Amino acid sequence: MKFETKVIHGGTQEDPYTGAITTPIYQTSTYHQQTLGGHAKYEYTRGENPTRFALESVMAAIENGTDGFAFSSGMAAIHATMSLLKAGDHIVMANDVYGGTFRLVNRILTDLGITFTAVDTADSVALQEAIKPTTKMVYLESPSNPLMHVTDIAEAARIAHDSGAIAVVDNTFASPYNQNPLDLGADVVIHSGTKYLGGHADVLSGFVIVKDAELAERIKFIQMSIGAVLSPQDSYLVQRSIKTLALRVQRHNENAMALAEFLNNHPKVAKVYFPGLPGTPDYEIARRQMRGFGGMMSIELQPGLDVKQFVENLDVFLLAESLGGVESLIEVPAIMTHASIPRDIRLANGIKDELVRISVGIEDIDDLIADMTKGLDAL
Questions:
Q1: 170 is an active site residue
Q2: In a structure prediction context, what are the per-residue pLDDT tens digits for the chain, which is 379 residues long?
Q3: Options 170, 234, 282, 371, the catalytic residue
Q4: In angstroms, rounded to a whole number, what is the distance separating the alpha carbons of residues 182 and 170?
Q5: Could you give the 3-state DSSP secondary structure of residue 156?
Q6: Domain containing 251 — which CATH number?
Q7: 46 catalytic residue (yes or no)
Q8: For the chain, what is the domain count?
């Protein structure tokens, strides 16, 4: 099936008990066992739930994996994946990852004896040089948050596998509509389902998708043991939203491309970070491994212009964290999403104080450009 069909018919959709087209919300914590020790598929909702299973099977289908696992947030999914590691293991990690990911690694995993090296994963030479004998995981975002760097996933996976490590890709910014890292050699795909998959700024969720049976068993055990599973209600909401994922992301792609071209030619904008702009370092790789360039971008205003004044003079673009919803959002990473990264590290990795990150929604593009014009004219 093509992607647009998979989001509607992929995985488990029809309820096996009633034939309901929409999987019901099985709002239960436990299940009746007919005989002692004789439970069938369902025993306890932390481990098994029909509503969550239906969502997980759809996620596996649209990421071209074999097994999907739903968590209570994107960070819970990342934590579960990094729980594959043990004391003494080493992570090579992208140097401009989401602030919450950096915080988890830098302030929690290091206390457990796990070490890391942060590099520009788009630089294959730097990535190769960061590998150590103890490296067990190469972790990257592509496009990255917030600088939109695009990593050659196939090359990164090759480097990881040559060293005996696994390649993990956070695919949140691209979404499964635009990119499938498992097809490019990645071992694990992660999503903050709160973003494009949920799509309506009304539910938290996270996903891990794999296609290796051994990895699937390990992730399933970690999911059940740690217990940060997605609730039946939230599983229903995300599955409902995925049915329109193709339509929404197509519009995100179109709007972002048009807005990036507008901002790239505006005299008050110094730089636009968007992989869809020809001539940028990430464009050729993005064009090769992505089907669309996504709805995310970042910009830098010309020196001396007031970022605070700009973001507070917008009406359609709402000043808020998160991304991937139908509404357009804008934020300043240094103060908001990446504030947990020490300033010296943040600046060294190119995340400047004046950087502005934009999540382009699905509103009319003329209204989005008019709102940006209003904000820039106010400077």
A1: yes
A2: 999 999 999 877 678 788 898 999 999 999 988 888 776 788 999 999 999 999 999 999 999 999 999 999 999 999 999 999 999 999 999 998 998 999 999 999 999 999 999 999 999 999 999 999 999 999 999 999 999 999 999 999 999 999 999 999 999 999 999 999 999 999 999 999 999 999 999 999 999 999 999 999 999 999 999 999 999 999 999 999 999 999 999 999 999 999 999 999 999 999 999 999 999 889 999 999 999 999 999 999 999 999 999 999 999 999 999 999 999 999 999 999 888 888 998 888 888 888 999 999 999 999 999 999 999 999 9
A3: 170
A4: 11
A5: helix
A6: 3.90.1150.10
A7: yes
A8: 2
Residue 98 a catalytic site member: yes
The reply to whether the predicted model has a pTM over 0.90 is: yes
Active site residue: 136, 195, 346, 357, which one? Answer: 195
Alpha-carbon distances, residue 15 vs 19, 24, 239, 268 (angstroms): 5, 7, 13, 54
Of the residues 89, 96, 98, 211, only one is catalytic, namely 98
- Please say if 132 is a catalytic residue: no
Tokens coding 154: 């196939």
Out of 242, 276, 299, pick the residue that ends a domain: 242
- Helix axis angle for 50-62 and 232-242, nearest 10°, is 30
User: Beta-carbon neighbour count of residue 183 at 10 Å?
Assistant: 15
From the candidates 15, 31, 42, 46, give the one annotated as an active-site residue. 46
Q: For residue 236, what is the domain's CATH number?
A: 3.40.640.10
Angle, alpha carbons 241-11-172 (nearest 5°): 50
Whole domain around residue 281: which residue ranges? 246-377
